[in-house]
């Protein structure tokens, strides 16, 4: 799973959000290191929804309709698997760095 997809699932793991809110939350949660555009996030949200990882409901705010995305059980499980994989990868990187520093 790409880091961008991981960050999108991460912010949606906290609470349901509309697309633009996802963009803002990813940027804020990564301190600006990952600043996905709406043009990147919306196709990702559509892909996750089509795959059953997200559900979407429509809400009307100030006369405008927007989709609010929420993780499904499948999405929560995928996020858990991704967290475990990233933690394992991080452990390997730290171990490699430590070994290189001892040389």
UniProtKB/TrEMBL annotation:
Residues 8-80 form the Transcription regulator PadR N-terminal domain. InterPro entries: Tscrpt_reg_PadR_N, WH-like_DNA-bd_sf, WH_DNA-bd_sf. It holds the Pfam family PadR. Gene3D superfamilies: Winged helix-like DNA-binding domain superfamily/Winged helix DNA-binding domain (1.10.10.10). Transmembrane segments: none annotated. This is PadR family transcriptional regulator. It comes from Natronospirillum operosum.
